[in-house]
Structures are given as structure tokens and as C-alpha cells.
Protein 1
Amino acid sequence: MLNLYCDESCHLENDKEKVMLIGGISCPDYARNIVYKEIKKIKKKYGISSHTEIKWRKVSESKIEYYEELVDYFFDNENLNFRVVIIDKDKLNHQKYNQTHDDFYYKQYFYLVRKFLFEDDVNVFIDIKDTNSIFKVNKLKKILNVWNQTEKSIKNIQQIRSHENSIMQLTDLLIGAVAYTNRGFITSNARIKLCDLVSKRAAHDLISNTNYSTHKFNIFKMELSNE
């Protein structure tokens, strides 16, 4: 059984951000408690409370070694794998495909989850964002199970609070690095340094597709046309 800890960045249709991302880290259910303990040890090493969230927006020069170690921990841990779907929102044309932005949002979750369903049964965990989250969970359950054509199944989809789950927080960190690079930001030396480390460890740039078979750090950049 795989647990998939999902997060998203700038998924709203009119938030004036060009790039939308949905990503997740997978971890075998039997390994999750070990991962929690090891991340807790890293926090303790740097004098950081176990209750302090790992977040991309908190990356700074004063804590760069801490965040670099978290990135290295992800890449060195054979139980953790990452996939992200990247969408250029300037090219969205929902009218052409007779869909709403919400419909499109759920399709992207399908593209995220589908790859993991070729490996094992999956539990999907998503971050609680707002009061509509429970509606999203119920609709996502229905859509993913209808579209799923693998022999594996989605056992459960549920909301969790990201500040209570360190693997979810690690997802936020990796999505943040991919988002920062794809938006062309150069506002922080610490963040640029962390993006460079992620790219180096992935042996791939953060703005183009990896091979579908790439397991550790998988990028799927949607090819869209707004015509």
C-alpha cells in the first residue's frame, strides 16, 4: 500500500499566477512512521521544534543548511518518490473542451495519481485548504475511481492538516522549488540555491518533462493549446 501526500500551488483560475502545480510524495504505508521520526531528528539537529512546519516560503539563508539536508534526505530515501504536474494557465481553454476550471483541476489530480496506481493500491491524502475541501474530496473520490483503469485501486482519499504531517510538508518544499523555477523568480539566493540542489539531485532541470518511467523525481508538464 502506498500513501500519496498531495499538495498544490496556485490552482485557482483567476489568482493572476501563470503556473499551476499539483504534486505528491509517495511513501509505503509501512515506512511512514520511520520517515516521521527521521525528519524529526533533522529538525532537532538544527534546533527546530518538531511542530515547526517545513514550508517553501520559509526558506532563507539562515536556514539553508537545514532545508538542503531535507532535500538530500528525500533523494537518499528509497521509500520516497515525487511526481508533479505543471500547467501553464495562460493556455487554458475550458470552453473548447466543454469543462469548468474545477473539472480541469480534478483531471490534473488524475494525471498525478495514475502513475502510482501502476505500482500499488493507493491512499491519497490532500491538504485542507478551505471550507470546500470536503466537497473536493468526495468529488475526487468519484472521479478517480471512475477513470482508474489499472488493476490497483484507490483505497481512500482524505483530508489532513499539513502542519500535522511532515511528509506533506516535504511535498510543499519540492513543489515550491519547481514552482519557483517555472515562474522564473530570482528574488532569493537561498531559494535559488535550493532549486539548484533539487535539480542536481534529480539530474534534470525543473522546467521540462522527465521520462514517464522516471521514478524518483517525475515531472509531467502539460502540453496545452489555447487555440
Protein 2
Amino acid sequence: MTQRRITVIRGDGIGPSIIDSALQILDKVGCDFAYDFADAGLTALENEGELLPQKTLDLIAKNGVTLKGPLTTPVGEGFTSINVSLRKKFELYANVRPVISFKGTQARYENIDIITVRENTEGMYSGLGQIVSEDGSEAEAKSKITRAGAERIVEFAYELARREGRKKVTAVHKANILKSTSGLFLKVAREVGERYPDIESAEMIVDNACMQLVMNPHQFDVMVTTNLFGDIISDLCAGLVGGLGMAPGANIGKDCAIFEAVHGSAPDIAGKNLANPSSVILASIQMLEYLEMGDKAEKIRNALKDVIESGDRTTRDLGGSAGTTDFTQAVLDRL
């Protein structure tokens, strides 16, 4: 049997250390992957002279599945977000951000289980048509929603809900004000929802959705929304379960998928053995489920859950005093 090859981008800052944690765990559970390592971000800029080298793009396309650490895009004119570039390049139209409560995280809520499905290539966040006047007094950007783009992301959300036995999909919008773009998204969402009579369909204006997530998050199951709203809501949801250190993300397209830690590269703690690797471990669980290796995904999830719940060798953000390597070893010991 041919060994499955995975492209691995270690990333910047704390990226290499948390990615190494995830790879140790994947190996321990017996995934038997072959890893092709590639550079992107500041590391690539230093080594290759560009943020996103062609050979990295080639490896992503060749293997079809990538595990990625956090990347840093330099602040300044002319630098485009690497994550946005990857999503556009490989048409990774679906951003899937699940949040699940783990006892021991000191989060404000218990029993949270919400998936945010975010359209990843259109809308305001895509950076389309950004213009700043020569005198710096005016700036504008363009938001574009297509029927095809809205339909495929809403269908993705309903299919995910059906596949995972979820009961409800909530379309989040601002159609009361943004009657053209958000209005089209909502119209399409309603049409798609009618094709799934087995799943409850709901809709909510984005500002109300944010308030409701804080007041009563248990009313939500799967949320589907446009690019910018999804970026904000998914981080809000991460706050319900202990922060971005407990939130993974998957970027999925027709022929390619990239799984990532969604937090930043945290250069202030890079190399200090302090980072919580849970986000990228959870992203690797998403990757295994995508590859139909659910049994191994469940083993890792149970081991991670037990470490966090027991408080055994947990990192500072989880209330412990252990470092990245000790936390990783605690998960390995359970496996």
C-alpha cells in the first residue's frame, strides 16, 4: 500500500514547536504518513526571498492535504495575507471552525459544541478592489457575493450537518442593511435550506448572533455565513471554549485541503517551550476525519481531553505550568 504523503508547513514563531508536537502524536497513533516539509511566511522570506515559494505551492497541490502552523505576514504596503492567497490559489472555499468544550480549560461555558462554516473566497474579507487615494484621505474596498459561491458554502454546511447528525443550521447575515450582498446570501441560504427538510433552518442578523452567542451559545449547532462575519464569529466562538489555543481550522476545496492552527505565530514566546499545541493537534484530528481515519482521530481526541481534564502537565493558558514538550508527552503517554 502506498504511503500517504502530507505537506507540512511548520510556520513562523511557535509554529515549528507545535507542529512537531502534532507530528509526534500522529506517528504515535500509527498514521504512517510521509511528510513533505515546505516553507511559507517569514521563514520562506528569509530562506527563499518570497513569502510563498512556488515549490511550496507545488507540494500543496501534489499531495492535496496540508498541515500548517501559524504564518506571519509582514506589516506594510504590498504584502498580501498568505492565508488569503492560499485560499484563492487552491479555491479553498469552505473554512470549517469547530469549537468543543474541554473540562479543565477554565472556559466560561460548558458543553459547547458549535461549528462555524465560513465562505472563504468572496465577500469583504477577500480584499477585492482595495484603493487608497493619493492624499490618503479616502479608502475603499469592494465586497462581491455570487449566487454560486453562496450556494456551495450553504450546501456544504447542510451536508456537514447531515453527515455528523447535526440538527440545526443557522445562516448569519446583515441583509437588513447590506441588501445586495448579504441579501443575496440570505436568499440563497433560504432556498438551499428548503432542500434539507430533515434539518432545522434558522437565520440571524450578525450583531444579534454575536450577542446570542455570549448570552445563550447552546442554541447554536452549525452556523454558516460570509467571509468577514465568519472570521469574527469563529473567533468569538473560540472564546467560549478557552481561546484560540483550543480552536482548529480547516480550509477545504474540491481537490485540496489545508488544516491549521488558527492563532498567530506568537513571536514573543517562540523558542521558549511555552506554547499550547492543542489548536494544531485538533487541526490534525480534523485532517484525519477528512482522510476517513476517524478511529485514529477519536483516539487522539480522547487522549487530549484526558490530559486537559486531569490537569496533568498542562500549559499556562490551561492553568498549568508545563511547557509544550511536557504537554505533548502527556498526550503521548496516554496514547
Protein 3
Amino acid sequence: MPNPILGVLFHWIGGFASASFYVPYRRVRGWSWEIYWLIGGLFSWVFAPWIFASLQTKDLLGVLSAAPADVWGLCVMFGLLWGLGGLTYGLTMRYLGLGLGTAIALSLCAFFGTLMPPIVDGSFFTEILPTTHGQIVLFGLFLCLAGICVIGMGGASKNNDLPEDKRREVLKEFDLKKGIWVAVFCGLMSSCFAYGLASGAPVQKLSAAAGTDPLFVGLPVLCMVLLGGALTNILWCGYLILKNKTGAEVTRTHARQDGSRPSIGMNYILCALAGVTWYFQFFFYTMGESQMGEYGFSSWTLHMASIIIFSSLWGFALKEWKGSSRKTLTYVFAGLLLLIASTVVIGYGNYIGGAGGH
């Protein structure tokens, strides 16, 4: 029987993994971005999904080979589109800045990733909107969107706290019109991961029929969706490697100013750690979704809220908010409280829905 409280806990663990995965990358030395992103990504998109699915599910290859071709096509396609969204996130920050860019891109990602699957399958109007527990879950989504926007206001306020010369440097490429279009594209494409997972529902049923524990029936779907994401990222990193002529770095590192070289072995270990940690966000996501009952669609909101909560806390741990004004910190803490409240409200809505509330 689904346990929404346990589901929220799993989503929090997944959010922590997503917020933490980049920390090992910060210690990689002597490699260009495209090199360490590609090597870590191979663990994220290929190695970890297939290894963990092989260990935790029954007859993985049999289940995937039995999946209909159209399901394969949708999962891979949505994964590919999600990859495009991730690659344009940096452009969103470049043209709009941290505050406005985060608010628009992540709000759209949370909104469309949560609501579009039930709207498309018709359950939104028949099972969610008319019911009390469905309305509570939607209120939780509203709190999440409000929290994202308030955190975004905190990011904008942080920019205003900077000295004038640094503020001009941060926003020197600010372009509202171009930035809005990029942010909308980023948010819509990033939400496609949720569509890919929803498209894989038949594969979850096949995995369950093969005898897989209900907690892990979503792992084969991750293998499919992440293949599409891998394709997008590998092509982009390959382009950058050719353009910047950095391919030789996979067997060596740039020398430091004193002539010494960072440890290439340690770079590989750090990239592997970062990649597997990144994958764990969706490993626990599928576990959390399995516990949310009929309102599994709300998992995407819980996922987004948890990521932002723990990313903000990492920001404090890494002193990224050091020197911020009281106004900025007020925005950040208010946004965090709204996001935490959203996870509690959504969990409660799922709980009373599972208990038969109407």
C-alpha cells in the first residue's frame, strides 16, 4: 500500500542528491568543463542507471525488449528534449541573471512537469480538480511556485547587494527579450523528463509483472529516458571538445603554474562520484513516486522543491550568501519556508487521498 509520508522522504533524499552532485566537480583540477561533464555524465546517464536497474529489478533486458516501440520512442525523445532544457539553463542565467532566470525557468518546469501529464490523460478534471485531496495537492503546487519566485527575488536582491562595478559585470549580458524566450524554452524542455517518466508507465507494469519490488519498478524507465538525455549531452560535449581541442585531457591534465599536474586518477574518481550522486536524484524519485498513490503526478513538484531547498542550503554552507543584506536573506528564508510547506501540504493531500478522503 502506498505511503505518501515515506514518498516525501524519498523525494527529499533525491533532492539532496541533486543539490549535492556538483560539489565533487568543484575539486576537479586541470580539466575543461566539457571533459569532466562528459565523464561524470557517462556515470549519470549510462553506467549507474543500467547497473542499479540490473541489481534492483527482475529481468531488466526482458522487460525492456517487451516494451512497445512507441513507448521507447516517447521515453527517448522526451529525454532528449529534457537534455536541451538542461543545456540552456546556463543561457537563462546569462541573459536574465540568477533571480529572474531561476524564477521563470524553474516555475515553468515545476508547473508543466506536474500538471501536463494528468491534463493529457484526463485525470486532472475527473480525479484531481473535483476532490478535496486533489485541491490540497494543487495548493501545495501553488506554494512551491510561490517559493521559487520568492527565492528568485532573493537572487535578484543578492545582485543588488553587490558593488556597482561587480553588478554591471554580472549583468553585462542582460537581455530581457532574449532571456524570456530562452527561459521559457528551458523550463518547458526541462519539464519533459516528467513526460518521459509518465510515458514509461507501461514499462513499470511490465517490470511489476516480472516480479520487481514496487519501489523499483520505475528504474527500467530511467534507463530509457536517460538514453535520450545522454545523446543530447554527449553531442554537445563532443562539439565543445572538437571546438576547444580539449580531447587529450582524458589522459592528462593541464599543468599548474608551478609545473606540477593534478592527479588524473582523482579527477576520474570525483567525476564518478558526481555522476552517481546525480543519478541518485532519480533513483529516489522513482521510489518516492511509487509511494504517492493516485497522485504520483505531484512527485515532480516535490522533486523541484527539494532540489531548491537543498541547493539554497548548500549555498549557505559554501558561503555563497555571505555579505548579503537582511532583505536578501529574508527573501531566501521565506522562500525556503514556502517550499518546505509545499512538500508537507502535498504529502498531506496524498495521504488523505490514500485514506479515501474526498
